[in-house]
Amino acid sequence: MPDLESLRLLVLIADAGSIGAAATVLGVSQPAASKRIRYLERELGLALLERQARGSTLTDQGRTVTDWARNVLAATQTLLVGARAMQHSGAARLTTAASQTVAEYLFPHWLAALSRTDAHPSVALRVANSARVIELVRNHDVELGFIESPSVPRDLAGRTVATDRLVVVVAPSHPWSRRRTPVGATDLLDNRLVLREAGSGTRATLERVLPGAPQDYLELDSNAAVKVVVASGTGVAVLSALAVAGELADGRLVEVATSGLDLRRPLRAVWPRGRRLLGAAAEFLAII
Prior knowledge:
The two termini are about 35 Å apart. The protein has helices at about 5-15, 20-25, 30-45, 60-85, 100-105, 105-115, 130-140, 185-190, 200-210, 225-230, 240-250, 280-285; strands at about 50, 55-60, 95-100, 125, 145, 155-170, 195, 215-220, 235-240, 255, 265-270. The longest helix is centred in the N-terminal third of the chain and has 26 residues, at about 60-85. The strands form two sheets. Strands 3, 4, 5, 6, 7, 8, 9, 10 and 11 form a nine-stranded mixed β-sheet that branches. The chain has a two-stranded antiparallel ribbon with strand order 1-2. Helices cover about 45% and strands about 20% of the residues. The radius of gyration is 23 Å and the shape is flat. The chain is an alpha/beta fold. The protein folds into three domains: about 5-75, Orthogonal Bundle (Arc Repressor Mutant, subunit A); about 80-160 and about 265-285, Periplasmic binding protein-like II (D-Maltodextrin-Binding Protein, domain 2, 3-Layer(aba) Sandwich), CATH 3.40.190; about 165-265, Periplasmic binding protein-like II (D-Maltodextrin-Binding Protein, domain 2), CATH 3.40.190.10. It holds the Pfam family LysR_substrate. Keywords: DNA-binding, Transcription, Transcription regulation.
Protein backbone atom coordinates (compact mmCIF):
# COMPACT_ATOMS: atom_id res chain seq x y z
CA MET A 1 0.00 0.00 0.00
CA PRO A 2 1.41 3.45 -0.86
CA ASP A 3 2.00 5.64 2.17
CA LEU A 4 -0.04 8.80 2.57
CA GLU A 5 2.96 11.13 2.51
CA SER A 6 3.94 9.86 -0.93
CA LEU A 7 0.42 10.50 -2.18
CA ARG A 8 0.48 13.95 -0.59
CA LEU A 9 3.81 14.65 -2.35
CA LEU A 10 2.35 13.62 -5.70
CA VAL A 11 -0.60 15.99 -5.24
CA LEU A 12 1.76 18.81 -4.25
CA ILE A 13 3.85 18.25 -7.39
CA ALA A 14 0.69 18.62 -9.46
CA ASP A 15 -0.34 21.79 -7.61
CA ALA A 16 3.08 23.43 -7.25
CA GLY A 17 4.36 22.49 -10.69
CA SER A 18 7.66 20.84 -9.76
CA ILE A 19 9.32 18.36 -7.41
CA GLY A 20 11.45 21.11 -5.91
CA ALA A 21 8.48 23.33 -5.04
CA ALA A 22 6.59 20.36 -3.57
CA ALA A 23 9.64 19.35 -1.52
CA THR A 24 9.85 22.87 -0.09
CA VAL A 25 6.22 22.73 1.04
CA LEU A 26 6.81 19.37 2.75
CA GLY A 27 10.09 20.50 4.27
CA VAL A 28 12.21 17.77 2.67
CA SER A 29 15.11 17.90 0.22
CA GLN A 30 14.50 17.60 -3.51
CA PRO A 31 16.56 14.35 -3.75
CA ALA A 32 14.50 12.85 -0.94
CA ALA A 33 11.26 13.84 -2.71
CA SER A 34 12.50 12.38 -5.99
CA LYS A 35 13.43 9.13 -4.28
CA ARG A 36 9.99 8.91 -2.68
CA ILE A 37 8.26 9.39 -6.05
CA ARG A 38 10.44 6.73 -7.67
CA TYR A 39 9.52 4.32 -4.90
CA LEU A 40 5.82 5.15 -5.38
CA GLU A 41 6.18 4.45 -9.10
CA ARG A 42 7.70 1.04 -8.33
CA GLU A 43 4.91 0.25 -5.88
CA LEU A 44 2.19 1.11 -8.39
CA GLY A 45 4.02 -0.17 -11.47
CA LEU A 46 3.34 3.10 -13.28
CA ALA A 47 5.37 6.00 -14.66
CA LEU A 48 3.94 9.02 -12.84
CA LEU A 49 6.45 11.69 -13.91
CA GLU A 50 8.09 12.50 -17.19
CA ARG A 51 11.62 13.59 -16.30
CA GLN A 52 13.35 16.08 -18.58
CA ALA A 53 16.34 18.39 -18.28
CA ARG A 54 14.11 21.39 -17.65
CA GLY A 55 12.03 19.63 -14.98
CA SER A 56 9.44 16.96 -14.37
CA THR A 57 5.80 16.90 -15.42
CA LEU A 58 3.00 14.47 -14.70
CA THR A 59 2.33 11.76 -17.28
CA ASP A 60 -1.24 10.95 -18.28
CA GLN A 61 -1.13 8.06 -15.81
CA GLY A 62 0.30 10.41 -13.19
CA ARG A 63 -2.57 12.86 -13.61
CA THR A 64 -5.14 10.08 -13.17
CA VAL A 65 -3.38 8.69 -10.10
CA THR A 66 -3.15 12.22 -8.66
CA ASP A 67 -6.93 12.59 -8.91
CA TRP A 68 -7.34 9.30 -7.08
CA ALA A 69 -4.79 10.37 -4.49
CA ARG A 70 -6.79 13.52 -3.75
CA ASN A 71 -9.80 11.33 -2.95
CA VAL A 72 -7.71 9.12 -0.65
CA LEU A 73 -6.31 12.12 1.24
CA ALA A 74 -9.77 13.68 1.58
CA ALA A 75 -11.18 10.40 2.91
CA THR A 76 -8.32 10.15 5.41
CA GLN A 77 -9.06 13.65 6.66
CA THR A 78 -12.72 12.70 7.05
CA LEU A 79 -11.69 9.64 9.08
CA LEU A 80 -9.47 11.68 11.40
CA VAL A 81 -12.03 14.42 11.97
CA GLY A 82 -14.76 11.87 12.67
CA ALA A 83 -12.56 9.82 15.00
CA ARG A 84 -11.72 12.87 17.10
CA ALA A 85 -15.42 13.58 17.53
CA MET A 86 -16.06 10.06 18.81
CA GLN A 87 -13.46 10.24 21.57
CA HIS A 88 -16.18 11.45 23.95
CA SER A 89 -13.95 13.81 25.83
CA GLY A 90 -15.46 15.10 29.05
CA ALA A 91 -14.37 18.54 27.96
CA ALA A 92 -16.69 18.53 24.95
CA ARG A 93 -18.98 21.56 24.94
CA LEU A 94 -21.51 19.88 22.66
CA THR A 95 -22.69 16.27 22.85
CA THR A 96 -24.38 14.85 19.75
CA ALA A 97 -25.67 11.59 18.35
CA ALA A 98 -26.17 10.77 14.68
CA SER A 99 -27.61 7.95 12.61
CA GLN A 100 -25.11 5.85 10.69
CA THR A 101 -25.63 7.48 7.30
CA VAL A 102 -25.35 10.99 8.70
CA ALA A 103 -22.37 10.08 10.90
CA GLU A 104 -20.45 8.37 8.10
CA TYR A 105 -21.07 10.67 5.16
CA LEU A 106 -22.03 14.14 6.44
CA PHE A 107 -20.90 14.69 10.03
CA PRO A 108 -17.14 14.82 9.36
CA HIS A 109 -17.67 17.51 6.71
CA TRP A 110 -19.75 19.53 9.16
CA LEU A 111 -17.01 19.25 11.77
CA ALA A 112 -14.41 20.34 9.24
CA ALA A 113 -16.54 23.40 8.40
CA LEU A 114 -16.90 24.13 12.10
CA SER A 115 -13.12 23.99 12.61
CA ARG A 116 -12.64 26.71 9.97
CA THR A 117 -14.77 29.22 11.91
CA ASP A 118 -13.91 31.46 14.85
CA ALA A 119 -16.52 29.61 16.89
CA HIS A 120 -15.31 26.02 17.04
CA PRO A 121 -16.55 24.24 20.18
CA SER A 122 -15.36 20.70 20.83
CA VAL A 123 -17.98 18.18 19.73
CA ALA A 124 -18.53 14.61 20.95
CA LEU A 125 -20.39 12.18 18.69
CA ARG A 126 -22.25 8.95 19.39
CA VAL A 127 -23.27 6.80 16.42
CA ALA A 128 -26.50 4.78 16.52
CA ASN A 129 -29.57 4.12 14.41
CA SER A 130 -32.29 6.77 14.27
CA ALA A 131 -34.49 5.15 16.93
CA ARG A 132 -31.61 5.07 19.39
CA VAL A 133 -30.66 8.69 18.58
CA ILE A 134 -34.21 9.77 19.40
CA GLU A 135 -33.98 7.90 22.71
CA LEU A 136 -30.67 9.58 23.59
CA VAL A 137 -32.16 13.04 22.90
CA ARG A 138 -35.29 12.27 24.95
CA ASN A 139 -33.19 11.10 27.90
CA HIS A 140 -30.99 14.24 27.66
CA ASP A 141 -27.92 12.06 27.13
CA VAL A 142 -27.02 14.30 24.18
CA GLU A 143 -27.96 17.87 23.36
CA LEU A 144 -28.50 17.44 19.64
CA GLY A 145 -29.41 14.44 17.50
CA PHE A 146 -29.40 13.79 13.76
CA ILE A 147 -31.85 11.29 12.29
CA GLU A 148 -32.94 10.00 8.89
CA SER A 149 -36.41 8.78 9.90
CA PRO A 150 -39.41 9.82 7.77
CA SER A 151 -40.96 11.78 10.66
CA VAL A 152 -40.06 13.51 13.92
CA PRO A 153 -41.77 12.43 17.18
CA ARG A 154 -44.20 15.01 18.58
CA ASP A 155 -42.13 15.55 21.73
CA LEU A 156 -39.08 16.63 19.73
CA ALA A 157 -38.36 19.74 17.67
CA GLY A 158 -36.69 19.22 14.32
CA ARG A 159 -35.03 21.07 11.49
CA THR A 160 -34.07 19.71 8.07
CA VAL A 161 -30.31 19.96 7.56
CA ALA A 162 -29.93 17.96 4.33
CA THR A 163 -31.88 15.85 1.87
CA ASP A 164 -31.20 12.31 0.78
CA ARG A 165 -32.69 9.61 -1.42
CA LEU A 166 -32.59 5.86 -1.24
CA VAL A 167 -31.60 3.80 -4.27
CA VAL A 168 -32.15 0.18 -5.21
CA VAL A 169 -28.82 -1.58 -5.76
CA VAL A 170 -27.75 -5.05 -6.86
CA ALA A 171 -24.54 -6.84 -7.78
CA PRO A 172 -23.37 -6.66 -11.43
CA SER A 173 -24.16 -10.39 -11.67
CA HIS A 174 -27.79 -9.93 -10.55
CA PRO A 175 -30.45 -10.20 -13.32
CA TRP A 176 -31.75 -6.74 -12.40
CA SER A 177 -28.42 -5.19 -13.40
CA ARG A 178 -29.47 -5.73 -17.02
CA ARG A 179 -33.15 -4.95 -16.54
CA ARG A 180 -34.58 -2.37 -18.93
CA THR A 181 -37.84 -1.62 -17.08
CA PRO A 182 -38.03 0.09 -13.65
CA VAL A 183 -38.85 -1.96 -10.57
CA GLY A 184 -41.75 -1.19 -8.25
CA ALA A 185 -42.81 -2.07 -4.73
CA THR A 186 -44.18 -5.48 -5.75
CA ASP A 187 -40.91 -6.37 -7.46
CA LEU A 188 -39.02 -5.63 -4.26
CA LEU A 189 -41.36 -7.75 -2.15
CA ASP A 190 -41.01 -10.65 -4.59
CA ASN A 191 -37.22 -10.74 -4.21
CA ARG A 192 -34.85 -11.39 -1.35
CA LEU A 193 -34.18 -8.06 0.36
CA VAL A 194 -31.06 -7.28 2.36
CA LEU A 195 -32.31 -4.80 4.95
CA ARG A 196 -30.97 -2.55 7.67
CA GLU A 197 -32.18 -3.39 11.17
CA ALA A 198 -35.52 -2.27 12.61
CA GLY A 199 -35.12 1.21 14.08
CA SER A 200 -32.87 2.50 11.33
CA GLY A 201 -34.08 5.46 9.29
CA THR A 202 -33.27 3.62 6.07
CA ARG A 203 -35.51 0.71 7.07
CA ALA A 204 -38.32 3.06 8.16
CA THR A 205 -38.18 4.99 4.88
CA LEU A 206 -38.41 1.78 2.85
CA GLU A 207 -41.26 0.35 4.93
CA ARG A 208 -43.23 3.55 4.36
CA VAL A 209 -43.40 2.93 0.57
CA LEU A 210 -43.91 -0.85 0.56
CA PRO A 211 -47.50 -2.13 0.55
CA GLY A 212 -46.63 -5.04 2.82
CA ALA A 213 -43.90 -6.68 4.87
CA PRO A 214 -41.11 -8.55 3.06
CA GLN A 215 -41.20 -12.31 3.53
CA ASP A 216 -37.75 -13.22 2.22
CA TYR A 217 -35.12 -10.95 3.75
CA LEU A 218 -31.80 -10.74 5.53
CA GLU A 219 -31.39 -8.12 8.28
CA LEU A 220 -28.02 -6.49 9.04
CA ASP A 221 -27.08 -3.64 11.36
CA SER A 222 -24.75 -1.54 9.19
CA ASN A 223 -24.57 -0.06 5.70
CA ALA A 224 -21.17 -1.69 5.20
CA ALA A 225 -22.48 -5.18 5.96
CA VAL A 226 -25.46 -4.75 3.62
CA LYS A 227 -23.20 -3.59 0.78
CA VAL A 228 -20.80 -6.51 1.17
CA VAL A 229 -23.61 -9.07 1.11
CA VAL A 230 -25.35 -7.54 -1.91
CA ALA A 231 -22.07 -7.11 -3.83
CA SER A 232 -21.49 -10.85 -3.36
CA GLY A 233 -24.65 -11.50 -5.37
CA THR A 234 -27.10 -12.12 -2.54
CA GLY A 235 -30.35 -10.20 -2.88
CA VAL A 236 -31.39 -6.61 -3.39
CA ALA A 237 -30.75 -3.63 -1.11
CA VAL A 238 -32.28 -0.18 -0.74
CA LEU A 239 -29.69 2.17 0.72
CA SER A 240 -28.83 5.85 0.85
CA ALA A 241 -27.30 7.25 -2.32
CA LEU A 242 -24.63 8.72 -0.03
CA ALA A 243 -23.73 5.26 1.27
CA VAL A 244 -23.32 3.58 -2.12
CA ALA A 245 -21.74 6.37 -4.17
CA GLY A 246 -18.29 4.76 -4.09
CA GLU A 247 -19.55 1.29 -5.00
CA LEU A 248 -21.63 2.66 -7.88
CA ALA A 249 -18.68 4.64 -9.19
CA ASP A 250 -16.30 1.66 -9.31
CA GLY A 251 -18.89 -0.88 -10.48
CA ARG A 252 -19.16 -3.06 -7.38
CA LEU A 253 -22.89 -2.26 -7.26
CA VAL A 254 -25.40 -1.26 -9.94
CA GLU A 255 -28.34 1.11 -9.39
CA VAL A 256 -31.71 -0.14 -10.59
CA ALA A 257 -34.30 2.35 -11.84
CA THR A 258 -37.57 2.46 -9.89
CA SER A 259 -41.16 3.44 -10.63
CA GLY A 260 -43.87 4.53 -8.21
CA LEU A 261 -41.49 4.69 -5.24
CA ASP A 262 -40.86 7.99 -3.48
CA LEU A 263 -37.56 7.23 -1.76
CA ARG A 264 -36.60 10.81 -0.96
CA ARG A 265 -36.17 11.76 2.69
CA PRO A 266 -35.07 14.71 4.80
CA LEU A 267 -32.18 14.40 7.23
CA ARG A 268 -33.01 16.29 10.40
CA ALA A 269 -31.49 17.70 13.54
CA VAL A 270 -33.69 17.03 16.61
CA TRP A 271 -33.79 18.27 20.19
CA PRO A 272 -36.39 18.34 23.02
CA ARG A 273 -39.43 20.41 22.09
CA GLY A 274 -39.74 23.59 24.10
CA ARG A 275 -36.00 23.90 24.69
CA ARG A 276 -34.26 26.75 22.92
CA LEU A 277 -30.92 25.89 21.39
CA LEU A 278 -28.14 28.07 22.77
CA GLY A 279 -24.35 28.24 22.74
CA ALA A 280 -22.45 25.48 20.99
CA ALA A 281 -25.61 23.67 19.82
CA ALA A 282 -26.94 26.82 18.13
CA GLU A 283 -23.52 27.57 16.59
CA PHE A 284 -23.18 24.08 15.17
CA LEU A 285 -26.69 24.03 13.72
CA ALA A 286 -26.19 27.45 12.17
CA ILE A 287 -23.00 26.28 10.42
CA ILE A 288 -24.73 23.17 9.09
